[in-house]
Specification:
Number of helices: 2
Helix content: under 10%
Mean pLDDT: 90
Structural class: mainly beta
Number of domains: 2
CATH class of the largest domain: Mainly Beta
Radius of gyration: 19 Å
Largest sheet: 7 strands, antiparallel
Shape: globular
CATH superfamily of the largest domain: Glucose Permease (Domain IIA)
CATH architecture of the largest domain: Distorted Sandwich
Order of helices and strands: EEEEEEEEEHEEEEEEEEEEEEH
Strand content: over 45%
CATH topology of the largest domain: Glucose Permease (Domain IIA)
Length: 265
Amino acid sequence: MLSLALAAWVAGQGQALQMSYAAEPGLTGVTVTWSGHAVPFTLRGDRWLAAVGVDLDSRPGDHAVDITFAYEDGRTRVVREPVLVNAEQYPTTELQVEERYVELSPEDQARADREAAETSAIYDTFTPESYWNDAFQVPVRGAKDGRNFGHRRVFNGQPRAPHSGADLRATTGTPIYAANRGRIVLAKDLFFSGNAVYIDHGYGLFTTYLHLSRIDVAVGEMVEQGQQLGLAGATGRVTGAHLHWGVRLVDARVDPFSLVRIGAQ
């Protein structure tokens, strides 16, 4: 866990970062300004904690963030803290998929554009509360890691955007569980993602579960950590059955396993 006592916060491109500050008498709140959002810290025991993300395409090098401390006597102070973003090397992966997912028909292109706007609107929402209380867990039981996060993808010889999630090995019908408590904000079939579930965990943190063969939850439902969301499958643009598990953390595409590693609470 990092501390404000360090010379700088340090994180790699595409990684989650947990900020931590020790509780002190009279301190009632801590907030970090990150990617245009005021992200509150949560008091957990004797520490104030906040989770933020460094996007895959963030510029490597020195950055800075403003952290605001509020006190019970009405005082506030703002401290500018350095953030060092380390460059990460992600390989290129070439894949062969159905041609309809590369050269889209006008109808499919219109559908994909509508769905992209819908998911962007979801990510633009910032829920000003935290729904979770425990560290995040991997949604496939027994899985220790994932593949392909950050890989620059080439579909049928055509370059596409980097892979923004981790692919977990899962045969069709494998139960998929919520990584943490949150509200279902999308549960439907999407052109590229197949059967998809999006969870809003609050404070700008979303997890996504794609290519499912079955969806077991509905929009608006509050789910608990470990609750079954559906079954793994091979729907959408895929080369075989698996789970694509994604995390969007305060506008940043980050490796879901980096969120697990920091034990974000």
